[in-house]
Design goal:
With 398 residues, the chain is mainly alpha-helical. It has 19 helices and no strands. α5 packs antiparallel against α17.
Length: 398
């Protein structure tokens, strides 16, 4: 697919504002909820519920977009931003540690997470219209923004209060809305046209793409340990002598390891097939978790975090194009939203289990358990990967 440079800066802005908002909503969720008086288990339940609702909403909207030509990503974005804004206003208004706070935070996370599959569908629409942005570069700019946000948020929370996070989230929500209005103002309406072609229902899609369905399962399981160490990184940091400021800098450093892989992905993808890059990144997920389990100081934790680039970053920039290769364009919203939602499915399981485990046993033991589970999940994901060109039998017969 030919890349159109004029849309790369605009799509980069979308990725930047989304990942900055994600940093507030998800990466600092445990910090905010603990400030509200939640235990690890309660924070885990909130994270799990938010991720689950975000997954269901993302897949539901993706299916609607594929099935009905009147429903487009352009019309769905305002609903997501309005939902985020109202949730954040409620968080600001409610007092500490109430049931209402937990429910509203679940909604806030769900509306935030649903923006990502919509952005991936938008990328697919641009690609099929011959206006393909450089996804690797755009995602790299998003990671850079995440790095900066992590450093600033860590310092702000330590110096002032986690109570400022909803205010920051509200500002970023408005920034997201403005960025999407900007890119839509540059896009012709025909970009969203399906020319009468409708995708198949969700269950039929899963039955017709069985290996892809197996890959989805493997990725969902693989993101259990990934999100466990991400959502509860504050516990890991404290176990080796760090604090909230350490968390901010470590989170920033970890995100920074993504940037080289994303910026150079276009060059890397010319040398290795998507399937090869997918397999390598899947293996490195387990290597990263094992290295974190072995770390016994802030310095060695930084060293282990270098592997984040080889695992998460490489996977995230490879999988978008891989999904386009192995699924039909008419099903692109479903396919991309399903894959994007697998990380949140993993977050549901991780949030439910990790919080309980961290309340019951030492952090180091929890990390070794997640490393073992990561190895098992990698095997499942390998079985779902396509060989060769990446075309499914169903596609080749069309």
């Amino acid at each position: 697919m030919k890349q159109t440079k004029s849309f790369t800066p605009l799509f980069s802005v979308l990725q930047a504002v989304y990942l900055t908002g994600y940093c507030v909503a998800v990466a600092f969720a445990a910090v905010h909820l603990q400030w509200r008086g939640c235990t690890n288990t309660e924070a885990g339940l909130v994270l799990a519920a938010g991720c689950l609702l975000g997954t269901l909403l993302g897949v539901f909207l993706g299916t609607l977009i594929d099935r009905y030509t009147a429903i487009t990503v352009q019309r769905m974005y305002p609903l997501m931003f309005f939902g985020q804004a109202m949730s954040l206003v409620a968080l600001i208004a409610f007092p500490l540690s109430t049931l209402a706070v937990k429910i509203v935070y679940v909604l806030y996370m769900a509306f935030c997470l649903t923006v990502n599959p919509l952005d991936l569908k938008l990328y697919a629409d641009l690609s099929y219209a011959g206006k393909t942005p450089d996804y690797g570069f755009s995602r790299g700019m998003g990671s850079l923004s995440y790095v900066i946000a992590s450093m600033i948020l860590g310092a702000v929370v330590r110096r002032y209060s986690a109570g400022l996070l909803p205010w920051i989230g509200l500002f970023l929500c408005l920034m997201q809305a403005a960025a999407h209005m900007l890119i839509f103002s540059r896009m012709p309406e025909s970009t969203f046209s399906t020319h009468g072609v409708r995708g198949v229902p969700l269950l039929q899609f899963l039955r017709a793409n069985r290996r892809y369905s197996l890959l989805l399962l493997g990725v969902a399981l693989l993101f259990v340990p990934q999100t466990a160490v991400s959502n509860f990184r504050i516990n890991i940091v404290r176990s080796i002598g760090g604090d909230e400021s350490t968390l901010g800098f470590l989170t920033a450093f970890t995100a920074a390891t993504e940037i080289p892989f994303m910026l150079l992905y276009t060059h890397i993808s010319h040398k290795w097939k998507p399937g090869t890059l997918m397999r390598f990144s899947l293996i490195m997920f387990t290597a990263k978790i094992a290295a974190m389990a072995a770390a016994n100081s802030i310095g060695t934790m930084y060293a282990a975090s270098v592997l984040h680039g080889f695992s998460y970053a490489l996977f995230m920039v490879t999988v978008v194009g891989y999904v386009q290769r192995v699924t039909d364009p008419a099903d692109s919203a479903k396919a991309q939203s399903l894959m994007a939602s697998m990380s949140t499915v993993g977050s549901v399981i991780a949030s439910l289990s990790a919080g309980l485990l961290l309340d019951a046993m030492p952090v180091s033991r929890v990390l070794w358990l997640t490393a073992a589970f990561s190895a098992f999940s990698t095997v499942i994901a390998f079985l779902g990967l396509e060989n060769g060109s990446g075309k499914t039998p169903a596609q080749e017969s069309r």
